[in-house]
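Q: What residues go here?
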């Protein structure tokens, strides 16, 4: 394993940053740095010589900063932004389009009192299991929710008696190794994907979880080309699909089954609030996997802490949904 934190200060004044690192037995250490204006600061967690085992990072600053974590495992990497919020309820839709060897949910409690937690797992076939656990103050706990390639289509609901953070990780066959995403604490009726791509070496999938205990989710997915046709000034979707997700159930959807060749964007709407992950498969045999939460809200400004200018290609998708 190798782990790196990247902090972006988009402001015009320096930001004093404090990073608290915790493990299964509590706080391990803290470190501080100064993030210069309009610059990127990188912290190599491995260089801090922490004890082996699960760790979590709690980043605080005297100015707004954006934070992302890159986790390297074998020849693969998993990258995700930090969460600004703790919550008592988290929803993790899981994986689609590929098979995981094992799946882990990690719970982080940066508060000074222990949190009691109820964890529910839901397979695509509707099998539910429950377990109870706790996360000590200033501590982290990892739960193995599936192993040996079983139940790759599994969603997780986490309910705690005090606010915590939750993250999903999937370990995959080599050479991929690892992928994952933060949990979702605020399910939504509307989700976006600014950049999708379909070709013979790219796959694009959605994993969805409907946490509503009573009502089905009637879901509509609309895909648009990079330059959609207009009708009375309104973009016309290239393709539309509708389907249903049962109460307290998960589902997956293959965007590639309806997507145009090349780039596309997505707008998803639902009759009830749901949680959505987007999973991209690519490379030889579509064996490599990238995973992220779909986007809940549009915004006028975005900051991307993690990136580099090496010879590897990087893409930033964008889409104006104001006229949709």
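A:
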């Amino acid at each position: 394993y190798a782990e790196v934190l990247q902090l972006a200060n988009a402001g015009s004044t320096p930001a004093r940053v404090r990073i608290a690192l915790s493990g299964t037995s509590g706080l391990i250490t803290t470190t501080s740095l100064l993030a210069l204006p309009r610059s990127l600061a990188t912290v190599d967690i491995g260089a801090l010589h922490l004890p082996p085992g699960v760790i979590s990072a709690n980043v605080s600053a005297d100015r707004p900063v954006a934070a992302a974590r890159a986790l390297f495992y074998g020849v693969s990497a998993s990258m995700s932004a930090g969460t600004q919020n703790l919550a008592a309820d988290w929803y993790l839709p899981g994986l689609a389009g590929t098979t995981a060897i094992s799946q882990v949910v990690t719970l982080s409690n940066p508060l000074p009192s222990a949190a009691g937690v109820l964890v529910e797992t839901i397979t695509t076939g509707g099998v539910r299991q429950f377990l109870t656990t706790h996360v000590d103050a200033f501590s982290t706990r990892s739960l193995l929710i599936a192993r040996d390639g079983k139940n790759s289509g599994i969603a997780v609901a986490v309910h705690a008696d005090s606010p915590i953070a939750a993250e999903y990780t999937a370990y995959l066959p080599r050479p991929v190794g690892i992928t994952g995403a933060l949990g979702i604490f605020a399910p939504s009726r509307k989700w976006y994907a600014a950049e999708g791509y379909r070709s013979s070496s790219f796959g694009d999938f959605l994993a969805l979880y409907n946490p509503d205990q009573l009502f089905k989710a009637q879901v509509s997915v609309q895909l648009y080309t990079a330059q959609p046709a207009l009708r009375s000034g309104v973009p016309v979707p290239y393709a539309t699909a509708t389907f249903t997700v049962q109460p307290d159930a998960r589902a997956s959807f293959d965007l590639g089954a309806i997507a145009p060749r090349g780039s596309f964007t997505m707008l998803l709407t639902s009759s009830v609030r749901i949680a959505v992950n987007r999973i991209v498969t690519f490379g030889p045999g579509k064996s490599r996997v990238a995973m992220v939460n779909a986007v809940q809200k549009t915004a006028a400004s975005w900051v991307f802490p993690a990136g580099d200018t090496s010879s590897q290609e990087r893409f930033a998708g964008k889409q104006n949904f104001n006229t949709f």
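A: Context that may help when evaluating the design: The chain has no helices and 23 strands. The radius of gyration is 20 Å.
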